[in-house]
Amino acid sequence: MAQGKKLVIVESPTKMRSIQGYLGDGYEVLSSVGHIRDLADKKDIPAADKQAYGKYSIDVDNDFDPYYVVSDRKTKTVAELKRALKTADELLLATDEDREGEAIAWHLLETLKPKVPVKRMVFHEITKDAIQAAVGNTRELDTDLVDAQETRRILDRLYGWDVSPVLWYKVKTGLSAGRVQSAATRMIVERERERMAFVSADYWDVEALASSTSGFRVRLVRVDGGQLARGTDFDDAGKLKKAVVVLDEKKAAALALAVDAAGVGTVSKVEAKPGTRSPYAPFTTSTMQQEAGRKLSMSAKQAMSVAQRLYEKGYITYMRTDSTALSTQAVQAARSQAVALYGDSAVPLKPRVYKSKSKNAQEAHEAIRPSGETFRTPSSVSSELDREEFRLYDLIWKRTVASQMADAKYETTTVTIVVDTSASGVDAQSIEFTASGTVYTFKGFLEAYEEGRDEKRNSQDTSDEQSLPVVAVGDELRMSDAEAKGHRTTPKPRYTEASLVKALEEHGIGRPSTFASIIGTVIDRGYATKRGQALVPTWLAFSVVRLLEEHFADLIDYDFTAALEDDLDAIARGEQKRVEWLRSFYYGSDQQVGLRQVVDNLGEIDARALNSTRITDTATLRFGKYGPYLEVVDPAAPDEKPRIVNVPEDLAPDELTAEKAQELIDAPVAGDRVLGVNPENGKVIVVKDGRFGPYVQENDPVSDDADVDESTGEVVEKPKPKRGAKKDAAPKPRTGSLFRSMSVDTIDLDTALQLLSLPRVVGTDPESGDEITAQNGRYGPYLKKGTDSRSLESESQIFDVTLEQALEIYKQPKYGAGARRASSALAEFEADPVSGKPIRIRDGRFGAYVTDGETNVTIPRGQKPEDITFEIAVQMLADKRAKGPAPKRGARGAAAKKAPAAKKAPAKKPAAKKPAAKKPQTDAEKAAARSAAAKKAAATRAANAAKKRSE
Description:
Elements: E1 6-10, H1 13-23, E2 27-31, E3 37-39, H2 50-53, E4 58-59, E5 65-66, E6 68-70, H3 75-86, E7 90-93, H4 99-112, E8 118-120, H5 128-135, H6 143-170, H7 179-197, E9 202-211, E10 215-223, E11 226-227, H8 249-262, E12 264-277, H9 285-296, H10 300-312, H11 328-342, H12 378-381, H13 387-403, E13 408-420, E14 430-442, E15 476-488, H14 497-507, H15 512-524, E16 528-531, E17 534-537, H16 539-551, H17 558-572, H18 578-587, H19 595-600, H20 607-610, E18 612-614, E19 619-624, E20 627-632, E21 643-646, H21 658-666, E22 673-677, E23 684-690, E24 693-699, E25 707-709, E26 714-716, E27 735-737, H22 749-756, E28 760-764, E29 771-777, E30 780-785, E31 788-791, H23 797-800, H24 803-811, E32 825-831, E33 838-844, E34 847-851, E35 856-858, H25 870-883, H26 891-898, H27 923-950
Helix pairs in contact: 4-6, 6-17, 6-18, 7-15, 7-16, 9-10, 9-13, 9-14, 10-13, 10-15, 11-13, 14-15, 26-27
């Protein structure tokens, strides 16, 4: 870099390219690709510091001092930044202007230790004017924002690392607890509990067709002056909340016949009420996620990913914001565009001003809007954006323009019709119907945008909007087509991602910018699954929430969690001190019990009770190592071992009613159904429905005195003899798992014999002499030749693939360019800025993943390969590098290899001569033994290779 250039550091490669074009040759713009350092892993802490920092990578006794390290994957990035800094005469830190961006800037400052002037450059949109203005209007680093981010990071580490191990020991290994994650999980579980406790109530009404010049539908509302019951009149226990008329099917049908018999009704009342609707505020992060979920069916994570791309490409303003404010230029741009598209009457006389309603709103940024002083219309940018980017930009553009438009004006007319049923022989003398219709006299902002809606309870009571003819009081209308209609009250709908985001924000829990990752974690941890748009909690989530409620009640309390956010905001404003606050949270104070005290005084936790939910007097839902199941006790023999009944994975908790549980208990067992006899050895082939899925098994022939159910072919086992002397273990019978496309009910003998014959020998490789087999595994069908395996595209290939086809598959490289279709690149991008190698999306045995040839990242559930762009791929790879390699089995051994003591391994060699030292005892000895074994193996391979070449 030429002398005199200014170095600008941003966190995103796309941002880097956009800004470089706006600043010109006098600047060099580089990317840190996110955070360059984080709290150290235990293995990275030197032995001298382990006592202080070893547990959390935080010295809790010394002002909660964090131990940061540069990730191994970021050393190349840091080296590149240091190289560029050597010849720069000024450093501009241009990361995002929020807590996370400020923290990235601070870590860059701490790591690079620049000797040139340093300035903080901030902007809310990536346009030429905004970037050039930001260069001329820099500021100092905001250490209060840095303190707030660091406090959050330390808080989450303390919370997660103290609470999560309790879940591992009492519920299931691999689980995690988090400050916001656990509160969100509790919300989802509580909603399901409400649905489980809900008692539905039935009620009936009557609909009919009223006609004058044209027909319209009317609904029964009163019987002899008494109001007819609606869904909102019942509580969650199915009881009435007030005195209303409840019709059953018989009475409703009789009234419908009476209406048709009367044939005429009289208009008793016509009410016309004018009204107005105001436009919605421009998008904040939260409302954008909600609307993207409702209207575009995007997950919160997907919406944020697409918005990030739009921002970095310069199409929208910064997408992490709680503010609904618009700049003066943006207001003028929106009003001008509204006038140009919809006329002068489309905007009010004065610009609209919005104030944020969020409890933790920060006004540092504008709302999310199209960038620039004039907005580009969606049609003008359609050729520059991909499908998802265009859809979200269109949504943001419409919302922004509509926010400055005039109110919509409407008139709602309600017509009441009385029908005399006294001559029909029914109990009622007079019944009343109503119908409503709304007409917009001025659409205003609705010309541009109307907000989506979440699912509502008892929506069946809401009448569809319809156009009503002009009628007057006293008019007689013809009544016909009366029909009795039954309804049932409904529980609260399950949360969707959109409604959960809304609920979290209303409670003041978490930051809108983190909602996407929080919901992603809840799903990835197995606490909830998606059924359509709804989030359905798992029984695992019930166990986790029960443990947290019983033993960490304060930590999962909504108000307490929201108060933490308020405190972090106060630290960001400089009103609270980081160390004092952390000390109070961890060790406690007069106002609260500290986390340390809670963890140290947990007492006994009954894991069995924790993972149990009573369904009936004899059936209990238990959550075990392999998932949920019913434990059924025989009332006649309560001391006998309970029967185990599998619970279908797709059965939601609120669907496991007492009736459903009994249905599962009474269902015929498909296991041990005899399929026939193996003609080769005379053994009996049976199909079973096991804990890990259905499978076939080859058993010894059934003896003559065995009992067989003639109707089902099921072998009825005789009582097992009491345990006696220990016998030699019998050889295990052959088994074969059913393919996903197979069913226990339909599998036949021929198919079962094929499954038992696996692995199938395809043939022998003529070059190596190795046998090639086809088989099914945990991650799908594959070929195996020695230690080299290759995925097959379908289960049917296991039986069909020929030797020629198998050899062709093995000719193609397992990884890299030219790999076969099942492992080939689904998409290709430019070179990764860290590794310098091209980025590809591949389809592997574990699903689609992103790779640059060095680092692999599995694409998470809920995200499709086509959603991944170059920018997202770079960030995914960067995050994976920051985490470091996944721990291998035998974590102690792996850690010992990297321990400094392992370098002294040669000093342990004399000990190997002693006969007593059969087993290395210390970590250093184990590491030395492994190192020696590895060297010996390498030498052996080299010798064998040399011998083969000489032959």
